[in-house]
Amino acid sequence: MSKEKSSDKALSAYPHLLGLIGYPLSHSFSKRYFAEKFEKEGIDAIFYDLFPLEDISQLPQLLQTYPNIKGLNVTIPYKEQVLPYLDEIDPAAAAIGAVNTIVLKEGRLMGYNTDFYGFYTSLHRLLDQHQQKAPGALILGTGGASKAISHALEESNIPHLLVSRKAGKGDLTYSELEEKHLKNYPLIVNTTPLGMSPNINSYPAIPYEFLRSENTLYDLVYNPEKTLFLIKGNQVGSPTINGLEMLHLQAEEAWRIWQEMLSL
Among 70, 79, 147, 232, which one carries the catalytic annotation? Predict the structure, then answer.
């Protein structure tokens, strides 16, 4: 567990400690987001910190070190790996098969998925704004985040295909993508970290020559604001959006769950 020991005493002094687990966490927005939120709302009994775990097996040690942890967010690569450590999983998160929010109450770990809410709400705002419908979608990536996206599309009655680097993990591999797929599944959602700072020159290997203005590109990456994936969509007039709005929405939903479950 990559954590400075000198901060243990200070963090343990807070009645309520919240945080983010994942690895690495150098480009996470969560700590700043909640710090600004708590300052604006005059909340001083709660602190939010980053807990980079090199392996998910270090989670019990983290909870033992900080018994005042009341809630955690979960990011790459542990949204699925964390499931065996939970005592209870919300039915929606169980259906998705991934957790990104944890409540610790009375010694029990309860898992939720707020990525679904964030993406669903953001996607429908985008489609309404451009007065578009999505007859089908391509989900790039098959990790934990892709599961929430898939569930949101199912709830929206939008057929979709999963695209993976390896055969058998999704419905298609990148090399199998053809013009008909981009035409019949015009919404393209990148759930991979490709393009994320500092690796800003990377992008998903889809056949960009077949992109048209009828496509809509949604990138869960938010740093940088415009990834090469989105830039290539803008070049042909496609509506695009990055993952920042989704992040804000899922963070607020996590905060709502923590407040409701823990009476914060």
Answer: 79
Q: Alpha carbon of 100 to those of 19, 89, 219, 234: distances in Å?
A: 11, 11, 18, 30
The answer to whether the CB of 149 falls within 8 A of the CB of 179 is no
Residues 230 and 222: beta-carbon distance below 8 Å: no
d(CA 160, CA 14): 45
- CB 108, CB 88: distance < 8 Å: yes
pLDDT in tens, 86-116: 999 999 999 999 999 999 999 999 999 999 9
SS3 73: strand
Nearest to 198 by CA among 221, 229, 173: 221
CA 93 to the chain's CA centroid: 13
Strand partners, 188: 138, 217
pTM above 0.85, yes or no: yes
β-pairing, 101-105 vs 69-74, is antiparallel
Q: Is 37 tagged catalytic?
A: no
Three-state secondary-structure class, residue 264: coil
Question: Which tokens belong to 36?
Answer: 């600004």
SS3 178: coil
**Interatomic CA distance for residues 105 and 12, integer angstroms:** 17
Q: Are 194 and 202 in contact (CB under 8 A)?
A: yes
Instruction: Take residue 33 and report the two structure tokens written for it.
Output: 């987001």
Segments of the chain scoring below 70 in pLDDT? 1-7
| Count of C-beta atoms within a 10 Å radius of residue 179 | 12
Domains of the chain: residue spans and CATH: 5-113 (3.40.50.10860), 116-245 (3.40.50.720)
Cα distance between residue 59 and residue 124, in whole Å: 35
